[in-house]
Every structure is written in structure tokens, then in C-alpha cells.
Specification:
single chain, about 270 residues, alpha+beta, eleven-stranded antiparallel β-sheet, globular
Length: about 270
């Protein structure tokens, strides 16, 4: 796959996942196995399936594909700030065309749903040409050989391992056009080192049977500093949703008119 496509996704995921606290830190959850950032499945869960219980890393999985489109959404409500922040990342890549597309949309609302701010940024990379579009304005740049080498390096350094603990195999089904093993899981290590209580920390995911890459992932969290109904209690409600589609299917990526105009000097 395009080196630039990998790093574009990797950097965005690093930023969002770090902010959301779901990036693997290398710490071993209570009752977990080696320091992989993911807990060793409980024996009873492992017995439910001979399939791998955890996927390969995001970058490793994407590197095995000729093309794909991926959407990663985080939705967070903070009781202290009384704000809800929804960030959506859309990433497409076509290895044969050496082209990638990244779109980042961030919406901030009040607890009552009033829109406070909205930012959208798009990036198109085709060959060594990059075009960034924000607020209707486009900027086209050429990537040097050094920049491409750094992109390759970053694609190896920056990666994303989803938080998964105590997985239980559910079955096998078609997910986004590929055969996948599906699982549910429950995170039990959150809040262990603080006064926060995880009143909900569970989710589901699907791993492609051929390739062991993550096809779908969802985690729902609710953290509270006190019982529900306590007016002094602080809480945070969040969800993390990743979906990989158009796997090895034709993905068309082309510069939009704004980029074409900027490249020709008319932007």
C-alpha cells in the first residue's frame, strides 16, 4: 500500500486514540499476559474458538491490502465541560494508483446539542503530490524523497492496537464483504488505579478469517466518580467505532477542482 496512505492514517489515529485513552500503552491489565497492551484471553473464552482472539496491528493489517476505505469515529461527552466532541476520520487508499485520501471532521456541541464549532480538513495524496483542503482553500505541495522516507519510517513507528480484554468468540459471519470471526469483550482494568468507576466498558469486534486484520471494532465506555444520581459526581460517556470497508475493491481517489486549480496556479 502507499507509504503516504499508511502514515496519514497512523498519525491521525495516534492523535485521536491518545486523546481518548484507547491507544495501547504496553501496560498489562490485571490478570493479563505479556506486555502487549492486550490481555491474554481467559481460558474459558479461548476454548470457544481455535481462531486468533486478537487482530494484527492496524498498520500491519492495512499493509496487506490493495485498497480499502476506513471510518473511525469517537464520540465523547464530558460532564465537567458539558460538551460533546465527535471526531470522524475517513481514510481511503489505493495501492496500485499510489493514492490516499484522509478526511478529519470534528464537531463540538453543548450538552443540549447546540453546535459550538465544526472543523473539516481533507488531504489527497497521489504519487508525490499532496493537496490539503480546509475551509474551501486548497494547498498543493510536492513530497520530496526525504519526506517519503520519513513517511515510511512513521508508518512503522506509529501504530494502533485496539484495547481488547477478555474476548469471547461469538461466531463467524460476513462483515463488510469478508468472512470474519466476531467477538464480544469486556474491559475490567479501567479505573483500577483511580477513584473512577467504569459503569460500562464493553464492546465487540470482528477479525478477517484471511489475514487476521480488524474489520470492525466498537467500544462503549462510561466512567463515573460517584454513583448515578449523585449531583457531585463527574462522568464521561464515550464510544469508539471503527469500520473497514471496500476491502480490495476499486477505490477511486482524484484531486477535486480546488486542488486542480491550486496546482495550475489558479487557487
Amino acid at each position: 500500500m502507499s507509504r503516504k496512505g499508511i502514515v496519514g492514517f497512523g498519525v491521525m489515529v495516534l492523535i485521536v486514540a491518545s486523546a481518548c485513552g484507547i491507544l495501547s500503552s504496553g501496560a498489562t491489565p490485571e490478570g493479563g499476559g505479556p506486555e502487549t497492551g492486550r490481555a491474554t484471553p481467559e481460558p474459558e473464552a479461548q476454548e470457544n474458538s481455535g481462531a486468533d482472539m486478537v487482530p494484527v496491528s492496524i498498520n500491519q493489517g492495512l499493509a496487506s491490502l490493495d485498497s480499502y476505505s476506513m471510518t473511525f469515529t469517537t464520540d465523547m461527552l464530558d460532564s465537567v465541560a458539558q460538551e460533546r466532541t465527535v471526531t470522524t476520520l475517513v481514510v481511503s487508499n489505493n495501492r496500485d494508483a499510489d493514492a490516499s485520501y484522509n478526511r478529519t471532521e470534528t464537531r463540538v456541541e453543548t450538552g443540549d446539542g447546540e453546535l459550538l464549532s465544526e472543523e473539516v480538513q481533507e488531504q489527497y495524496i497521489i504519487g508525490n503530490q499532496s493537496c490539503t483542503v480546509a475551509e474551501g482553500e486548497a494547498e498543493v505541495t510536492s513530497m520530496s524523497d526525504m519526506a517519503q522516507v520519513m513517511a515510511e519510517l512513521m508508518s512503522q513507528v506509529v501504530d494502533f492496537n485496539p484495547l481488547i480484554e477478555n474476548p469471547v468468540h461469538v461466531g463467524q459471519e460476513d462483515v463488510n464483504g469478508v468472512s470474519a470471526d466476531t467477538y464480544t469483550f469486556e474491559v475490567r482494568s479501567l479505573g483500577a488505579a483511580s477513584d473512577a468507576e467504569a459503569t460500562r466498558a464493553d464492546g465487540s469486534y470482528a477479525i478477517a478469517v484471511d489475514g487476521d486484520f480488524l474489520v470492525r471494532y466498537r467500544l462503549d465506555l462510561e466512567l463515573r466518580s460517584g454513583p448515578e444520581g449523585d449531583p457531585e459526581a463527574e462522568y464521561s460517556i464515550s464510544s469508539y467505532d471503527l469500520s473497514l470497508g471496500e476491502i480490495n475493491q476499486p477505490v477511486e481517489i482524484a484531486f477535486p477542482p480546488e486542488c486542480q486549480a491550486a496546482a495550475s496556479g489558479g487557487g
